[in-house]
Amino acid sequence: MSPPLLEVSNASKIYAMGGLLSRRRFAAVADVSFTLEEDRHEIFTIIGESGSGKTTLARMILNIVPATEGTIRFRGVDLATIRKRADRLAFMRQVQPIFQNPFEAFNPLKRVDRYLYMTALHFTDARTADEVRAKADRALRQVGLSLAEVKGRFPHELSGGQLQRVAVARSLISSPALIIADEPVSMVDASIRMSIVNLFKALRDTLKVSIIYITHDLATAYYISDRIIIMKKGEVVESGNAREVLAHPTHPYSILLKNSVLSPDPSRRDELLAPQFSSTEKDIAALR
Amino acid sequence: MTAGAPTTVGAAGQGVAEAPQPQPVLRVSDLSAFYQTHYFGIVREVRAVDDISLHVLPNEIYGLAGESSCGKTTLIKTIAGAIQPPLNVVGGSVKFDFRGQSINVYESTPEERNAMRWQHLSYIMQGSMSVLNPVRRVRHSFVDFAFRHIGRSMPDFLDTVVGHLERLHLRADVLDAYPHELSGGMRQRVTIALATVCRPEFIIADEPTTALDVVVQKGVLAMIRGIQREIGSSLLFVTHDLSVHANLADRLGIMYAGHIVEEGPTAELFASPRHPYTVHLIGSLPRVGDAAPKKGLEGVPPNLADPPPGCRFHPRCPLAMGICSRETPVMEWAGPGRRVACFAAEKGITA
Amino acid sequence: MLSILKDLLRYNREFAAGAALLGIVVAMSAMSALAPMPPDDVYVVPPDLPPSWTYLMGTTSRGQDVFWQLSFAIRNTLLFGFIVALLSRILSLVIGLLSGYLGGFVDRVLMSINDTFIVMPLFPILVMFYFVMRDRMSWAALALVMAGLGWAYDARLIRSIAMSLRTRQFTEHSVYSGMSTRQIVAQEHLPYVMPIVFSTTMNNINWSIGLEVTLSVLGFTNINTPTIGVMIYWANQHTAMTAGVWWWVFFPVALVIMVFIGLFLLAVSMNEYIDPRSRLSRMRSAKT
User: Fold this and answer.
1) By the CB < 8 Å criterion, does A190 face chain B?
2) Which residue of chain A has the CA closest to B169?
3) What is the pLDDT of residues C71-117, one digit of tens each?
4) Range with the lowest mean pLDDT among A14-18, B21-25, B36-40?
5) How far is A258 from chain B (nearest CA, A)?
6) Are the C-beta atoms of residues A247 and A261 closer than 8 Å to each other?
């Protein structure tokens, strides 16, 4: 039997804080386990608020931050054993990130198409300038852009939505098996947001890519996810089928999270915004 | 409550009074404010606020929605009179009417404007850290901002502050904390307390909950509305998040590329949006429990330094007609308390 | 490149003024090629003549024409300053960027070397070099020594910028585009430190010329190679100021001040073209 695509087993990231005498251990990620199967292309969502450890977990899977306990295996390879540049390139060819802020993900002093060419040059068999451009153009067409629109442009000349599409296109050039998207739409304008979200759906269905979608937004998570885990203070508090978990959460924190989502429906406003903050405060205090 | 104020103060100024109605606290008429730069003899103009008219009634929450760089932050800066070159007001007026004391922001002296701030007009900003001095206890921020406006002795003043904090379910000991010792939500609530302690008639809130976690956001919003209802002030609330507007705003204005394109009572605007941009925004909102496919809008928001001719939305509009690229639609009265700037909506066509 | 220079000259007053000042200085040093007599010869013209049409800047007490003498002196001094700056810039860039980007062990080793150089007292070391080398102390040797001593402060400055660049999202984006350390440091990070490099180059030339003048005035260099410092040395030896031969001191000092001001203005205006978001490129896009 072939190994799973991604196997996270009991992974933890523990930071030591404070000085010599008051050393405290702080678990950014505590004992997280889940598995993504090779053939089940899915959107796996990690939900959590700020400080929940979701971004640290993403960086552990990207092998930017090493796990202090437990193991993360990608196609059977323990990420801790990847050290040589050739191995790292081989890993990055298969696992690609998409970052939160498209304006930060591109060097403002450099042209955006450069990232596409670099990726094509390092991760594909393209060697000549024409081959590299062809790869970039193909990837851009998969996200609804073309090289002509992007060529020679600086980041400040494109909109946030366009830049995020270019970032997605870049991640597709190496034909990865897994894409890790950390809050990819939180900085994107509302009118563009759903097209990016739909793009992830399309990638899963047509390109057979698995996607780890990291977000704090339950509504888009419900819209595109197959499975979810909900994290709080580094721990997974609830996991399972996305629609079931979000429709009928069972853990108190998941319930609180769901009840905190504002409904975009003015007819229910008074029930939602009843002056209940003292009780909310108590809920938070009890949970923290 | 004040939802459905039955007048429009439009560009043409047609006021169709159907019922006796209170005097608006804020009246913005035909306001235009551009960023004008002259570098080496080349003039550039970014038309961030372009011919905007709106009014806000007493005890009303007016929501302003729009995407990034649509001019909403510039609009509230201009309304507050807090502008600096290269941003210049090129036309129109901003008038406040505080219980008999009226002020025309761009015809008043800087002293008059300063006197207006904090006592009659206050802000709640997105970054609470920019209001609270990070190296001084919270108490000092209250003294610095509000002491001279309240005009009582120091013990009296602190009693007032503590009473106000209690109203906002904050314990008095936050006064002795440093800002970094408080959580993000707590800090934002302190800034709200700071902005409301003088019981101003008008509060401007710029994305006050955007940086907060969802669990905390709801409590903060409830608090903002609670205190607004209690002191009876008007609130101009700016955020890109329509779910927040749905739960908070009495009336809602939708901004696109420097214009307000649609305005109306929140419930009616959500139930029957008229402008194709609003239709899209509301239609594409994802909700938990709704997995029906939703489309994004193609195209990009226009560059305000070089906006398209005619209606600025027409390159992305599913209903665009010939006239849309030639003429700019004006805000027309479109039902009780509603205005819309769209040629298609005028003809009764909806997306 | 040419069009950038043209735009800078047309629209940027600082650049135009700086270029004009340096132009005069460079033209002066170029005159050395036309000199009617070699720089070392003495008593070739009547001594102690004030500026006149025959002797534009007067003559020295050693029977040299100040104008031609100065042309050799400024050529050598400029060359000296540029060589010291160039060599020490290379050192500080390589060490600062690598140390900041790689961090960890490399950073600790490089920075301990760096700190050693920062605390070393420069002047006694330079004087010591003179006493060890004596007659072999050419200005080229002095330039090498000063370049070796003059990189440390700026390497620290560059390191601090590189450290903040390392945490920016676009650096991770570059890593996942397959770029190597060399590519990231040289292509992504270098443009950010260039404005600093330009202004520190100005400071460094200033510093090295200043030190060279000091050493020369005291006689701790090869006094047979004419430089600005050596000219002042000879003027001092002949008590030029008290003897009323002010032109022997005035013209060298005036020329050195022109160099400093010209370099400063250039460094300030250079930032205009390094940043594509700057006024210049915005302006150009407004024109087209």
Assistant:
1) yes
2) A278
3) 999 999 999 999 999 999 999 999 999 999 998 899 999 999 999 99
4) B36-40
5) 8
6) no
Mean pLDDT, rounded, for A89-95: 94
Pick C62-251's CATH classification: 1.10.3720.10, 3.40.50.300, 3.40.50.1360, 1.10.238.10. 1.10.3720.10
Across the interface, do C188 and A118 touch by the CB < 8 Å criterion? no
For residue B1, the model assigns a pLDDT of: 39
Find the mean pLDDT for residues B43-72.
Answer: 87
Verify that A89 and A134 share a domain, yes or no: yes
Of C176, C180, C192, the CB nearest to A96: C176
Alpha-carbon distance B296 to B287, whole Å? Answer: 15
Q: How close, in Å, is residue B139 to chain A by CA atoms?
A: 23
Residue A17 in any domain: the answer is: no
Model confidence band, residue A186 (pLDDT cutoffs 50, 70, 90): confident
Q: Considering just the CA atoms, what is the radius of gyration of chain B in Å? A: 21
Residue C273 one-letter amino acid:
Y
Structure tokens that stand for B133 in this block = 């001095």
- pLDDT, one tens digit per residue, over C223-268 is 788 888 888 888 888 888 888 888 888 999 999 889 888 888 887 7
Exposed (0-12), middle (13-18) or buried (19+): which is A19, by Cβ within 10 Å? exposed
Same-domain status, A186 and A45: yes
What is the pLDDT, as a whole number, of residue B278?
92
**ipTM for the whole predicted complex goes beyond 0.90:** no
Nearest CA distance, C268 vs chain B (angstrom): 17
B44, C286: Cβ pair inside 8 Å?
yes
B82-128 tens-digit pLDDT: 888 778 888 888 989 887 778 888 888 888 877 777 778 888 877 66
CA torsion C171-C177-C178-C179 (nearest 10°) is -50
Could you tell me where the DSSP H helices lie in C12-151?
Answer: 13-30, 66-102, 104-119, 122-133, 139-149
Helix (H) or strand (E) holding B227: helix B214-231
Whole-angstrom CA distances from A114 to A111, C174, C189 are: 6, 10, 14
pLDDT digits over B8-27, tens only?
444 343 444 455 567 888 99
Taking the domains of chain C in order of start, what are their residue ranges? 62-251
Cβ distance C54 to C63 under 8 Å?
no
A274 and A218 in one domain? no
Q: What is the mean pLDDT of chain B?
A: 82
Using a CB-CB distance cutoff of 8 angstroms, which residues of chain A are in contact with residue C188? Answer: 107, 110
Domain hosting A276: range is 251-288
Which residue of chain C has the CA closest to A154? C276
Q: Do C169 and A167 touch (CB under 8 A)?
A: no
